[in-house]
Amino acid sequence: GITFGVQYGYGNWSFDEARLASQVGEPLAASFTSNVHPGQTLDLHAGYNILGYGGLEFDVTATGWNITTSDRGGGGFVGGVASFSPFNFFLNHDRSWDAQVLLGYAYGLVGQHQAESGGVFQWGLRGESSVSSNVSVGVALRFFPPRFSSFILDYDNRDLPGEPIDLPQGSGGLFWMVGAQLGILIPVGGTPK
């Protein structure tokens, strides 16, 4: 069936400052890492569940800090996720809970005045309990280890010559999020037993 989900919770960033400094210099690396903060995180996803065994999803994740001030910053990812429900291969599908393993790829961007962008693999775990035949609640833990390939010196002037700086070694680091989830399933076709 067709699936929709919302996850809301906490997200935290960490970066490999030494790796970044070796590519852009210590002052820029220190400035960037000191201006990236943890905060509230929202994830929206929509996809297609294949008979309860797994699915493919379009996924958008966003987080931000100081969003009402001139020092606002944030980050996010847009991409795709494949989900896999291992318990459905050896247990009946009519139980009230499910657990999923997630794996995907996304484009990411994070920063405040300076920023990093590029490709990101993502993976995670999601657990859900049905509150009705079409609605579930649960928790999810997701990991995004960025390997950003570009460092933007001044986000407001990112189209000027010299922008961005290539990061041939990648950015290193990790973004993780944990949160509560609400899921909606719109059945299409038959129901597995």
- Please tally the β strands and state the result: 10
User: What string, H for helix and E for strand, traces the elements in order?
Assistant: EHHEEEEEEEEE
Largest sheet, spatial ordering of strands = 1-2-3-4-5-6-7-10
Largest sheet: 8 strands, antiparallel, barrel
Q: Pick out the low-confidence regions.
A: none
Percent range of helical residues: under 10%
Q: What value does the average pLDDT take?
A: 92
Shape: elongated
**What is the chains' assembly state?**
single chain
Rg? 19 Å
Number of helices: 2
List the helices and strands and how they pair.
Elements (H helix, E strand, L loop, with lengths): L1 E13 L2 H8 L1 H9 L4 E11 L4 E12 L7 E12 L12 E15 L3 E16 L4 E10 L5 E3 L12 E2 L7 E13 L7
Antiparallel strand pairs: 1-2, 1-10, 2-3, 3-4, 4-5, 5-6, 6-7, 6-8, 7-10, 8-9
List keywords for this structure.
single chain; 2 helices; mainly beta; eight-stranded antiparallel barrel
Task: Tell me what you see in this structure.
The chain is mainly beta. It contains 2 helices and 10 strands; from the N terminus they run βααβββββββββ. The protein has an 8-stranded antiparallel β-barrel. A hairpin with a 7-residue loop joins strand 3 (54-65) and strand 4 (73-84). Helix 1 packs across helix 2 (26-34). The longest helix is centred in the N-terminal third of the chain and has 9 residues, at 26-34. The mean pLDDT is 92.
